[in-house]
Design brief:
By secondary structure, this protein is of the alpha/beta class.
Length: about 210
Amino acid sequence: MALFITFEGIEGSGKSTHLRQLAEHLRARGRRVVETREPGGTAAGAAIRRLLLGPDAAPLTSLAELFLYCADRTQHVREVVRLALDAGQIVLSDRFSDSTLAYQGYARGLELETVRALDARARGGLWPDLTFLLDCPVADGLARARRRAGTGDRFEREALAFHERVRQGFLTLAAAEPGRFCVLDAAGPIERVRARVIAEAEGRLGGRA
């Protein structure tokens, strides 16, 4: 029963936590699940992740950053996501195309048409069945991220205004596709968010033969 579910949100919104909890829930019910992430879901992606987010990451232009994310995505789709879906598995990905639109498009200011065109080539027609957007105030998310990671990566060190643009970008994308997105208040109690994630995922799976 193949299903492609993505988790999106600003830094520190709880994506990884809720992805892991959903994976545990689904496996406990006998589902076959693949957990992955962008960037870094493949061997090539791990090298790209170091270029983008590693402690010694060099400065990049916005366009170079976009190209690297698309390079990671095309490998990820080919080596991980499509193979798992073709085998009837559920794929849970920490970030996918919406992050590229939010970060490199809305926040960095690259033309959205350019970002969409390059992303479309990278993902080769693949699109999530369900996307959870973990939404929370930017200051709260950054505080969580920085407690976890110290000085933070390239994005965690960006100014507050950058992250506000990311958040608004995600909310704009969600408003345009309400059938795919499930927007959750990540500032609320974690158990309430977890229950909603599980209910939404099970609802989609219930409709799959």
